[in-house]
Amino acid sequence: MDDGPTGGEPTSWEELYNINLVPSQLFVKFRKEIEGFRVGVNLEFYNAPANDYHAKLVLKPLAHDKKWKFMYEPLAQDVRLISKKIPITKFLNLQVGIGHSFQLHATGWKWKLTTCLGGDGVSRIRNKTTLGLCPGLDFRFGWRADYVFPEITGAMGTGEPLFNMNSGKLQASLDRIETIFTHST
């Protein structure tokens, strides 16, 4: 934990606990379920670190045993076939994809290991929480919490204080808000 300017404990509660409720990503998703597939249009707005916009067309099967989705980004002219997250352990997932960029005339593949525990695996939690308002309308919130647990230590005969307390630290943020409209037939 970083110490304050005096070299001791931080000087204010704002340095210890910070909660940011202004999301850096806003998504609006329109989904239509047709004959065992979900067809979607995603409009993605990013406001940090720079303003950006992405539109995506998404096709994926509704069956639980199908582990892929197809994405097309018309502005970037990219096509991708991506696996769903494949659980390796309770907290570790693998995702693999292959894609083609028509602008760059290039084909390649990517893989990604992800976890809900980020950072050093202990001090960060990332998660998504979905709130269903009514049939066909859902809100999904992507949030993150970085923390250091409070700690109490002490010593005797070592030159260190008999009692020392580190009050911990929390930085939480609401990173993403998604509005999802789904039409089922």
What's a concise summary of this model?
The chain has 185 residues and is mainly beta. It has one helix spanning 13-16; strands spanning 17-20, 25-34, 37-46, 52-61, 68-73, 78-83, 86-87, 93-101, 106-114, 117-118, 124-134, 137-148, 151-153, 164-166, 169-184. It starts with 12 loop residues before the first helix and ends with a strand.
Question: Would you give an account of this structure?
Answer:
The chain is mainly β and about 180 residues long. The protein has one domain (about 15-185). It is built from 1 helix and 15 strands. The chain has one helix at about 15; strands at about 15-20, 25-35, 35-45, 50-60, 70-75, 80-85, 85, 95-100, 105-115, 115-120, 125-135, 135-150, 150-155, 165, 170-185. Strands 1, 2, 3, 4, 5, 6, 7, 8, 9, 10, 11, 12 and 15 form a 13-stranded mixed sheet that branches. The protein has a two-stranded antiparallel sheet with strand order 13-14. It is elongated. It comes from Oldenlandia corymbosa var. corymbosa. It holds the Pfam family DUF7781. InterPro entries: DUF7781. This is OLC1v1037876C1.
Largest sheet: 13 strands, mixed
What is the domain total for the residues? 1
Strand content: over 45%
Which of globular, elongated, flat, extended, rod-shaped describes the shape? elongated
Structural class: mainly beta
Segments where pLDDT lies below 50 for 5+ residues? 1-7
Question: Over the alpha carbons, how many angstroms does the gyration radius reach?
Answer: 22 Å
The residue fraction in helices comes out at under 10%
- End-to-end Cα distance, whole Å, is 53 Å
The strand count comes to 15
Helices, by number, come to 1
Mean pLDDT comes to 84
The topology string of helices and strands comes to: HEEEEEEEEEEEEEEE
